[in-house]
Amino acid sequence: MKQWYRIEGGKPLEGAVTISGAKNAAVAIIPASILTGECCVLENIPCIEDVHTLLEILKRIGGAVSYTMGERLRLDSSGVNSCSITFDMVSTLRASYYLLGALLGRYGHAELSLPGGCVIGQRPIDQHIKGMRALGAHVVVEDGLVKARADNGLVGSEVYFDVVSVGATINVMMAATMAAGQTTLVNAAKEPHVVDVANFLNMMGARVKGAGTDMIRITGVSKLHGCDYAIIPDQIEAGTYMVAAAATGGNVVIKNIIPTHLEAISAKLMESGAAVVEGDDGREFFMQVTGGGRPRAINVKTLPYPGFPTDLQQPMMAHLVKAHGNSFIMENIFEERFNHVAELVRMGALIDLNGRTAMVQGVERLTGAPLFASDLRAGAALVVAALAAKGTSTVHNIELIDRGYEHLEQKLRALGANITRHVE
Ligand code: EPZ
Fold first, then answer.
1. Is 279 found in the same domain as 402?
2. Are 304 and 335 within 8 A, CB to CB?
3. Which one-letter DSSP state was computed for residue 312?
């Protein structure tokens, strides 16, 4: 069944939006729960397709999943009886690689079909494999599978990552929680969800120190226990609404956020002329973003946290296409994360691509067009552009957007957007 959005653009977004739990934390924490044979109860789990896919995988390998008190997700991994993850389970989901660290950590072996996910570049997993090998696992890639075994158990070690990788950091950190002795991860990723996963592991009784810095130390334990845990708010969802508010010249209060996670995006939006005010109403933090006329041109370079996140490069470009002057956007993380460019050009944007850099020559206005999302954040960028454009757009392939944004059209409609979902 094909689904698409119809968006009537040109209306400033106004009102308040509440951010959901972080996708990239949730998709790691769900596999991490396998490390204990006990029940974990998770709060603030986003209702998105990537989470549903992972829960289905967990059930297929013997885990039990239920919701208690509405939105609290209860995961029981005591019945997990298979360490084999097949292609049909993982073809759409990059984060399935976390099952490798979790299953290897708990059972000492795992077989995982190589992960799918967004088409944004090569996306090797050599650093994951390097880390598992350093912990003493025998790892081979054959028949489209990563096969890992540590018949005598994992043993703590020093792992130096050649590139800063969120996935490899989290995956090796998970496996190391139950390795004998101490593991040190050097050149680790510092993203908020790395810290969130470390906090979850520690709530289960793991001994992880230093998450959020580039060196993480893990002292292995022999057993982990169940726990209750609330997932952090989604940095990228919050950033997307901040950009959408600025791009439409709107005024939006973004609730359920952690302001420090949003510093890079606030800084760049302010540089582009938007007003960004951080607040605290006594119960929670919020961010208020007010857009004006056309933005100022700015330069953006994507970098690992605390730099500007690659996941917001595409939505940010959708904002800057209407800037006064030329903006340069350099993508340093994923070399092919530019599939949204051709779609923006069809709306009237002027963008020159040269390798990893896009030169965006600001135009006065965008006009609506039929648009095709190539990946999750490209989809978000097209929605932002369509909201800011004159006239009607249709955004296709929105199942990609459903992978990572909870109730996108409901949240946007509550902000006054004219967006509807259509099913064929
Ligand atoms: C995570 O992907 C996120 N996915 C991505 O979010 C995000 O864009 C990315 O981190 C960067 O922040 C999940 O958390 C599930 P990386 P990941 O390993 O872990 C290279 C979204 O839209 N690399 O940090 O796959 C790699 O090619 C998604 O929500 C290796 O060379 O990213 C890239 O250039 C898309 N070898 C860089 O490192 C490896 O073994 C960073 O990738 C691993 C990565």
1. yes
2. no
3. G
Structure tokens at 45: 């789990």
Q: Tell me: do 260 and 377 sit in the same domain.
A: yes
Q: Are residues 184 and 242 in the same domain?
A: no
For the chain, 424 residues long, give each residue's pLDDT as a single digit of tens: 889 999 999 999 999 999 999 999 999 999 999 999 899 999 999 999 999 999 999 999 999 999 876 679 999 999 999 888 888 888 777 778 999 999 999 999 999 987 665 565 667 899 999 999 999 999 999 888 899 999 999 999 999 999 999 999 999 999 999 999 999 999 999 999 999 999 999 999 999 999 999 999 999 999 999 999 999 999 999 999 999 999 999 999 999 999 999 999 999 999 999 999 999 988 899 999 999 889 999 999 999 999 999 999 999 999 999 999 999 999 999 988 999 999 999 999 999 999 999 999 999 999 999 999 999 999 999 999 999 999 999 999 999 999 999 999 999 999 999 999 999 8
- Whether residues 238 and 317 fall in one domain: yes
Assess whether 78 and 210 both reside in one domain. yes
CA of 123 to the centre of ligand 1 (A): 7
Same domain, 34 and 9: no
Residue of 24, 159, 403 with the most ligand 1 atoms within 8 Å of its CB, for mutation: 24
Q: What global pTM score does this model have?
A: 0.97
191 CA from centroid of ligand 1 (Å): 11
Map residue 61 onto helix, strand or coil.
coil
The CATH code of the domain that includes 283 is 3.65.10.10
Question: What residues make up the domain containing 376?
Answer: 3-20+234-423
Residues 84 and 180 reside in one and the same domain: yes
**How far is Cα 32 from Cα 204, in angstroms, rounded to an integer?**
10
Catalytic residue set:
118
Give, using CA atoms, the residue closest to atom 41 of ligand 1: 165
User: Torsion angle of alpha carbons 16, 266, 302, 49, nearest 10°?
Assistant: -20
Residues in the ligand 1 pocket, defined by CB under 6 Å: 23-24, 27, 94-95, 118, 121-128, 163, 165-168, 189, 310-311, 333-334, 376-377, 404
With CA atoms as reference, report the closest residue to 191 among 344, 27, 324: 27
